[in-house]
């Protein structure tokens, strides 16, 4: 199975720089997610790996071979797009076999390969249908089938689930991840959905405005965000960032007398994950501003001085707006970010 590496890859369209200085390695058999907000360069990066666009600088290697100048067909990759790109006039069978036939792969192998892929994806009873006679999830499986039957060592996916409803998305996430592990595919998957990235990936590459903000496994991205941007991009709800201000005895949460022991230079922000803050009998007084109940937990919006923050408390909490609650957290769950650069303080 293939490993992929990008070295100093950049792409500009006229004056506009879509991505710059992209460096990363994808291990063979790993599931890597390119994550980031709209316009950060995810699709551009994927298209460069696929060979659909040529980089303006840098090089791309697959399995140790420099493929920068190779055409897509020579790169041994398969690709699944957001729009499934199925042929409406072809049956499921013919859609899945399309690429295999175009590439003139041995006819004798077609039936067995089709059978395996159809069984794997639960499509065996739908082979004679046309795309219009399938549900969204089934169409997505056909698109996956076409990628899997190619037996290409690398599979690239660009937001493949964005046309599906929330429940089906979750099912398909699990299916894609299970298939990738079962077939030991090297996968690069583009999404702007952090829950998708966190739940599927071995490695997350978080992009921002064309550069890599952080490249780490999900657990590290969550526990040790490199920057305030990374901290805010991950988590539901995301990490709270509270501005700190000078206080005669050190540093306090801005607009309050709540002291935060932290050596370092201002400006500084305190990062606290909503799930790390407890509603306690004793602690920092805060005023309740919002209460949202979700069944398993309650998200409480509260204010300490000038700082608004969200608390994720297990179970149901009937709190009145304006009521004073007490908040507590462990010092080890505090993260500090430099106010100007946004970098996490080590
Ligand atoms: N063919 C093109 N010509 C000019 N600019 C482009 C082209 N393709 C992409 N760009 C620009 O490059 C930047 C990155 O685009 P890209 O599609 O890679 O972002 P993305 O992260 O995939 O966004 P989205 O999640 O919205 O699809 C954007 O500013 C975009 O406008």
TrEMBL record:
Domain ABC transporter, residue spans: 4-234
GO-annotated molecular function: ATP binding
Organism for this UniProt entry: Herbaspirillum frisingense
Protein name: Sn-glycerol 3-phosphate transport system ATP-binding protein
Keywords noted in UniProt: ATP-binding, Cell membrane, Membrane, Nucleotide-binding, Translocase, Transport
InterPro entries linked to this entry: AAA+_ATPase, ABC_transporter-like_ATP-bd, ABC_transporter-like_CS, ABC_transpr_FbpC, ABC_transpr_MalK/UgpC-like, Mo/tungstate-bd_C_term_dom, NA-bd_OB-fold, P-loop_NTPase
Pfam families in alphabetical order: ABC_tran (PF00005), TOBE_2 (PF08402)
SMART domains to which the protein is assigned, alphabetical: AAA (SM00382)
Keyword set includes Lipid metabolism: no
Classification via Gene3D superfamilies: 2.40.50.100, Nucleic acid-binding proteins (2.40.50.140), P-loop containing nucleotide triphosphate hydrolases (3.40.50.300)
């Amino acid at each position: 199975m293939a490993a992929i590496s990008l070295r100093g890859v950049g792409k500009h369209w006229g004056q506009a720089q879509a991505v710059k200085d992209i460096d990363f390695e994808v291990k063979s058999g790993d599931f890597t997610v390119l994550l980031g907000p709209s316009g950060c360069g995810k699709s551009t990066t994927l298209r460069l790996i696929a060979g659909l666009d040529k980089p303006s600088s840098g090089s791309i290697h697959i399995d140790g071979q420099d493929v920068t100048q190779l055409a897509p067909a020579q790169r041994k990759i398969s690709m699944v797009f957001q729009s499934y790109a199925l042929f409406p006039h072809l049956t499921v069978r013919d859609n899945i076999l399309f690429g295999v036939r175009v590439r003139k792969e041995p006819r004798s192998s077609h039936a067995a390969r089709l059978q395996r892929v159809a069984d794997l994806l639960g499509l065996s009873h739908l082979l004679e249908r046309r795309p219009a006679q399938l549900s969204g999830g089934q169409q997505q499986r056909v698109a996956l089938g076409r990628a899997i039957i190619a037996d290409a060592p690398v599979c690239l996916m660009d937001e493949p689930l964005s046309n599906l409803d929330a429940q089906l998305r979750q099912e398909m996430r699990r299916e894609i991840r299970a298939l990738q592990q079962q077939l030991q595919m090297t996968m690069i998957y583009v999404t702007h959905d952090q829950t998708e990235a966190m739940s599927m990936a071995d490695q997350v590459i978080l992009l921002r405005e064309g550069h890599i903000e952080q490249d780490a496994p999900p657990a590290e991205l969550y526990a040790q965000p490199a920057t305030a941007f990374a901290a805010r991009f991950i988590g539901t709800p995301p990490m709270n960032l509270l501005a700190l201000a000078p206080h005669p005895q050190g540093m306090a949460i801005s607009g309050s007398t709540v002291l935060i022991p932290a050596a370092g230079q201002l400006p500084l922000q305190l990062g606290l994950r909503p799930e790390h803050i407890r509603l306690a009998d004793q602690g920092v007084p805060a005023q309740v501003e919002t209460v949202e109940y979700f069944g398993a937990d309650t998200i409480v919006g509260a204010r300490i001085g000038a700082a608004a923050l969200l608390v994720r408390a297990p179970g149901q909490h009937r709190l009145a707006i304006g009521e004073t609650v007490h908040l507590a957290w462990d010092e080890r769950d505090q993260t500090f970010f430099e106010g100007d650069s946004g970098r996490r303080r080590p």
